[in-house]
Design goal:
Elements (H helix, E strand, L loop, with lengths): L17 H4 L9 H27 L5 H14 L5 H9 L7 H35 L10 H25 L2 E4 L2 E4 L7 H37 L5 H40 L4 H33 L3 H8 L6 H9 L14
GO molecular function, one term: G protein-coupled receptor activity
GO cellular component, one term: plasma membrane
InterPro entries: GPCR_Rhodpsn, GPCR_Rhodpsn_7TM
Length: 345
């Protein structure tokens, strides 16, 4: 039984019915591996810099740094597998690396994608609690709680990825070995339902939470008064970072989940091969946008590292008790771990 080649992740399309069996595997445009190579180099450099800053530049870690560091780790997961994907595309969608590395790639891609979404969502909750509920004593301000929460997230990611590691294997199609080309007919309905579950629980729900938290946080910051130039500048930067964080969700994750949903519907309802190939190209292109996420996050970290507690204090004024947490989430903390307070000028 033949099908279109599927490469990227546990989110790949699963063809199974008669119309889809007539579809031949197609070679993707050469521009895709070229762009992947460029993104890989950018991701490698930026994440290496971020890891270096976390380990050697920040002397005191606060609660916000824990979540940001785990987000860096989720981004760094892509580094060892992108060269394999680039080689796969460049060799005409022929997988020469064996079944284990194919399964490993599937597991890592799933863990990276949803690890990024989970930790971005947790960061939005942490920022909201730290500023809007600055005077409350909550677990979200305790490093011990966030460490345990991060470990629990990694546990969930592993549990979620293990079935994909076991089920999705290499297959021979059009005379070559494909990675993640599922051709068994019994997977069609199962994967349709699983894709709906992933979109709902792993994307729509986290995005809704982040959107709500940042909307409330933005409204709170917008209401803060500051007469000093430095205070106004930092207030503007804080609002800009909220917009950037939401933009990452929209740009990097919406295209992938939309194209994947359309793809599984096209295969489930046995539509034409031409339509299937069109959706397939859009799907792989959307993964390029998703990979941009691992390049944008380090830029945000480095922007945060430029912040200083005294600057943020000029925004908060009377809310000085929120400063340690806002610095930890919005600016990554001071490398000197300095403390202090200054009234709103």
């Amino acid at each position: 039984m033949e099908t279109s080649s599927q490469v990227f992740s546990a989110t790949s399309f699963h063809p199974v019915t008669n119309a889809s069996t007539e579809c031949k595997s197609q070679v993707l445009p050469h521009v895709i591996p070229v762009l992947l190579s460029i993104l890989f180099l950018a991701c490698l450099v930026l994440n290496s810099i971020s890891l270096w800053i976390f380990w050697f530049h920040i002397k005191q870690w606060n609660s916000g740094m824990i979540l940001q560091f785990n987000l860096v780790l989720a981004d760094a997961l892509l580094i060892p597998i992108v060269p394999l994907i680039v080689a796969y595309f460049s060799m005409g969608n022929s997988w020469p690396f064996g079944q284990f590395l194919c399964q490993f790639k599937i597991f890592i891609l799933s863990t990276h994608l949803y690890g990024s979404i989970y930790f971005l969502t947790l960061i939005s909750i942490h920022r909201y609690v730290a500023v809007v509920h600055y005077s409350s004593r909550t677990l979200w301000k305790k490093k011990s709680f966030l460490k345990k929460l991060s470990l629990f997230v990694w546990f969930l990611l592993s549990i979620q990825g293990l079935p994909l590691f076991v089920v999705l294997k290499t297959s021979s199609i059009d005379g070559s070995v494909k990675c993640m080309s599922i051709h068994q007919s019994e997977f069609t309905s199962l994967y349709l339902y699983y894709s709906i579950f992933l979109v709902t629980v792993n994307f729509l729900l986290p995005f809704g939470i982040s959107l709500t938290c940042y909307a409330l946080l933005g409204a709170t910051i917008a209401k803060m008064n500051s007469t000093s130039l430095r205070g106004r500048v930092m207030k503007t930067k804080s609002l800009q970072m909220i917009m950037v964080s939401l933009a990452i969700f929209v740009i990097c994750f919406v295209p992938l989940h939309v194209s994947r949903t359309i793809g599984v519907i096209v295969k489930y309802y046995n539509l034409s091969c031409e339509r299937l190939h069109q959706v397939e190209i859009v799907y792989y292109a959307s993964w390029l946008f998703t990979m941009v996420n691992c390049c944008l996050n380090p830029l945000i970290y480095n922007f945060h590292f430029q912040g200083d507690r005294s600057e943020v204090l000029s925004i908060l004024g009377a809310r000085s008790s929120a400063v340690p947490e806002l610095c930890s989430t919005q600016f990554g903390g001071s490398k000197h771990g300095s403390k202090g307070a200054s009234p709103l000028q």
